[in-house]
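Q: Can someone sanity-check these two? First one:
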Amino acid sequence: MQAFRRRAVPCAALAVTVFAIAATGCGGSKRARPSATAGESATSVTSTAPTRAATPSPAPADLKTAARLRDGGDLEAALQAYAAIATSSDAGQRQTARFAQAQLLVREGALEDARAVLLAYLGDTTSAPPDSDPARFLLASVRDDMGELAVALDYYDKYIAADGAAADFARIERAKLLARLGRNVDAATAAEAVLASGVLPEFKASFTLSMGKAFEDGKDDADALAWYVRAQTIDGGDVASALARAGAVKRRLGDVTWVDDYRRAIASYPSSGSAPDLLDELDAAGVPVGDYARGVIEYRAFRNTASRASLTRAIASADDAAEATYYMGALDERADDPASAIRSYQRSFEINPASTLADDALWWRGRLLEGANRFDDAATVYETLVTDYPASTFRVDADFRRGLAQYKAGNYAGAALVWSVIAAAGGDDAPRARFWQGRAQLASHDLLANAVLSQLATDPDARGNFYALRAEVLLGKNDTSDKSPKLSGASIDWAKIARYLKGVTGTDPQTADALTNDARWATGAALEDVGLHAQSDAVYRSLLRDNKEDPSALYGITKRFADEGRTPLAARAAVTLIGALPTTAPLTPDDLLRVAYPAAYGDLVADAAKQAGISPLLLLSLVRQESFFDPEAGSGAGALGLTQVVPTTGQQIATKLGVTEFNARDLYRPKVSLRFGASYIATQLASFDSDPYHALAAYNGGPGAASDAADAAGADDDLLLEELEFDETRSYVRLVMENLARYRQLYAGVDRPSLPR
């Protein structure tokens, strides 16, 4: 078990994206776009006023240019263009423009304007769309959000009756709407039908919780409670929220067991956002809470003084004393007292070597011993962790750091031996161990060092792997050329990709069924049309999940995503396709690699990089890791858009760049996100002497974390990575640099993946 660390999350100004579906994806906000971080006013996220972070260009009245403006983030100019085209005498162009205009208005929160445009679209006598048209679903959603519930219900009913492509999702919204209207029997029947449908399981989990909220909104506490209780048992559900809501309803109903729900919520989910508030409510009601549970919640809420007092009492009363002592060590670290933290972690382990946090205590004690230059002691601690806790999530890293502690102590031969054993065992960590084995042998003037590094650098199974690339750098065989990249003009030769796949698998993927008739294609497109991006993404990605071992099917899926302009999904599909091929397959053709590593937003990337004075390939590499080119991406830490900027950091960047009236929603605009991300990474490059490894560590983990690691590693980029506290940041730097090596090959004329330094 990996315990919660002394910092709640990496102190990231910008955080890695996880492509996940928000718990409210089919519950609260129907469009479920990631919102700003806590601390921002709701107005800054939902305001209907136009934002001016992106300067609109003149709005020509043609659909292609309007779409380009929209996709780049010049929304005001795009709206002007669509409004002009909406007056066209050509019915097809007029209707296309109206629907696109309505989508943008909804996205910007201008619901009244969106309603008017949608009514004009649906009422066009020369080109009236059928009831199954997504516009009817979108209008239902708009009127629902505006509080016009009865009218919204009628639109949902018509869309469902016409069997629109996203009918299952309209049924979800209809069921919640019925509950809010107080039509409880109808709502329950509709909800059961949703749960019995073919909707993806993750949607059913969030839907169950949101039905409870809908019944609450409809003033039906009994049904609300029943659904909250049910939400606690569904796989993948948000149990912490379900317990908190159930307890609140029970308390309102005078049911004394609300206390049990709150206690269970804080004991089982102390890191949930609601835990501190639930603790405060229990305290206000005079309900006793165990000191250990209290101390952990206070620790995670950064109530450090209160946490230390609670944990001290827990230790004195033997209330999970080992675990409480562990958290005392974490508090010592937070207080920048490593000596006390080392002692606390040791005491935690000694109190109970079988505690759920025993391996955590060993791991962090080892890391602090390294920081104190007590390398032999650190190696001993890691040895204990590896030997006695083989199932620990820290075991692999602890095994590696046994060698690193010896390396830092100057025992290069001993370090090389440790790493050679790890490398020989194979597995995901073998390239890392082989690389450091070579480094240790170089340091000890072992004549076999170059052979070890060369073996790694030329290993076909490690081609493009970060450590193979770094081995090439150590050997002085990397390509240091600095050619201007070409980010546009290259088309994909799909026939060439097909021939390659036929040679590998024996099957021509062009003749295989590309799942043409799978209903998920239409469902995904309809969901995207009505602004349910997260749901659309999940439906589309279920196609990949269900065909992840079939190269022919994956070829068809990848090509269709690319043909439809769904670049993020095409890139992910290409990665899945490459991963489905046997390890003995010949080198992947550049055409397929360019799908997996697209030069998306090429002109915007080039402009943003030029303004910031950075490499456009570095910016592309960063965007691929941050968002996989999805402009709607959002993370649990509140980071938004292509470059995953947190709104508070975005405001700082806006001030620096002279951008007025910045709004968090602007970060979803590619033109803004790319400019802001480029500016921020440029700032980090300037702070760390143009070193991309240090700068990327700062981008992901925060400048403080990068500086701490740099203090321990000096100018050694490889050691810097190993000194970074968070695995997430270490992986992030490696992956972005791997991306950079590949982008240099594909777009800068380098003949193989290679790092510039």
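And here is the second, same format, sequence then tokens:
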Amino acid sequence: MFPDYRSRSFLDPQALSRLASIPLTARRPMQGTISGRHPSPHRGASVEFAEYRKYVPGDDLRRMDWRAYGRSDRYYVKEFEADTNLRCCLVLDTSGSMAFGSGNFRKIDYARKIAGTLSYLAVQQGDAVGLTCVAKGIVQSIPPRQNPAHLMHVFDILEQAVPAGETQIVPVLHELAETIPQRALIIILSDFFAEPDEVRGALEHLRFRKHDVTAFHLLDPLELAFHFRRPMRFVDMEGGPAIFAEPNEIAGRYHKALEQYLAKIQDVVLRTAIDYHRLSIDEDYERALMRFLTGRTQTRGVR
């Protein structure tokens, strides 16, 4: 279907084949442009019954429930769930900290794999995909579309993304909440180096606008473990001053600060009810995506 996807370094054809059997579904009703597989906030034609309502002149008589009339001597029509396609908006953090990686992958490489795979799966099932790269502001942005040629454009931007500059993801999320016009699936890939309270405000803004929000929180195993044995020069990859320190002297304070930060992020997740996945980038990304996709099939959107 998509001729040159096999040449992309961040796509694994075998992983795509295995994951393609699991649909990418929305947890909340979507507002698309064509019939699809996702719940809509509107009523329409579907095989899934929604409710009865009283007949009013002009209703389609084919939707009349004559059995209900026989039981109650009142006219009722059946309403069904309307199904539509979704618009998947990927938000990729391309700030300087995403260039860090202590193993085979940097955070940006891991994010490319997730974003590229989800883009392919969404377009394959008839949904639209867009991409916004974020650093100090919006670096590059393309609106959601669903044709294979557009998907190749998404792949090109993913391949060319270079992590640099400061993190300003919170203001950008507020901007996207106001500029994405209809309900969409917003997938954020970031290390979320921002104040948790500010992140909470941005996520609540997105939820207020009826978007289905997913966050992939990417961390390097060395950031989590802090296994340094000798004096080190720690460089701020987003432009701040470098710090020379003895790891043994600061390890305790580092772990305490990390635990507090992760606890605050977890509190943000609980309060905003987003679909949150914290990932260490040494984890198999296919397993992480399998967990993400199967989890969503069990929580199909409600009105």
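A (reply): Looked at the second one. The beta strands are 38-54, 76-84, 87-93, 128-134, 138-145, 185-190, 212-219, 232-234, 243-245, 275-280. Confidence is low (pLDDT under 50) at residues 32-36, 38-45.
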